[in-house]
Amino acid sequence: MAALVWISGASSGIGEALARTVPGERDRVISISRRAPGGIEHLPADLCDPASWREVGACFQRELAAFEGDRVVFIHAAGTIEPLGFAGEVDTDGYAANVVLNSTAPQVLGHLFLAAARHVEAACHLVMLTSGAARSVYPGWSSYGAGKAAIDQWVRNVGVEQDRRGGTQVLSIAPGTVDTDMQATLRAATEDAFPQRQKFLDLHRDDRLSDPIDVAERIWRLLERGLDNGSVVDLREIDD
Ligand SMILES: NC(=O)c1ccc[n+]([C@@H]2O[C@H](COP(=O)([O-])OP(=O)(O)OC[C@H]3O[C@@H](n4cnc5c(N)ncnc54)[C@H](OP(=O)(O)O)[C@@H]3O)[C@@H](O)[C@H]2O)c1
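That is the input. Now the predicted structure with NAP docked in place:
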């Protein structure tokens, strides 16, 4: 039996690594992203556009209506750190897009996945990728940090709800600092827009960024661990 896996943002970074490391040889992976990743199915979607969410929801419903495999997974990895800069100073359209992608889209897409998975008998997993920025303050990342904090609280609530229904396992996982395009964007920022930039230059220089494939493999292993529903975990704080 095989799993059906949706990954938002499988065209780059951690999402791409998750797609490359799915545990089962026959697992089917669908990327939800603007760019088409090579070698896997692609559902084109600009998740900053709320109209795209209905198409994603329709895909969840269509595929799960007659699903016969043994596992269903949706990992929401799509996210953006841009525009880097202080609230009140950055471009308004870019700021609004950041809020929609990092805060609104995960909640609505998560809701649509749970609705489609309600009557599925296979094991169902919903994973949100969060960040230490949900708890720590980074000037220049206000809407990014707020979006990740929103994801974490959504997961805590929905995990308890799903526990009462015996439904989907819902987790929020912070991957640590990982060597992806997002990190390159941080290093390319100005000190003015992102005063803590030097810390990220140092992490890169000292080779202290995690490899996306290692992180992806750890995330897949975590799904097997039977963590409490609604758990919010940081890969830097747990052993596996
Ligand atoms: N890298 C880190 O150190 C780190 C640390 C903590 C948390 N995270 C989180 O991990 C997740 C993955 O980050 P990453 O580092 O792998 O970033 P990345 O390499 O920049 O990849 C971001 C992904 O998000 C997708 N995406 C961005 N805007 C989108 C949009 N409007 N519609 C649909 N998809 C969109 C991109 O796909 P397209 O461009 O093809 O649309 C891409 O696949 C993010 O949620 C991030 O917040 C990363």
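The first strand starts at residue 3 and ends at 8.
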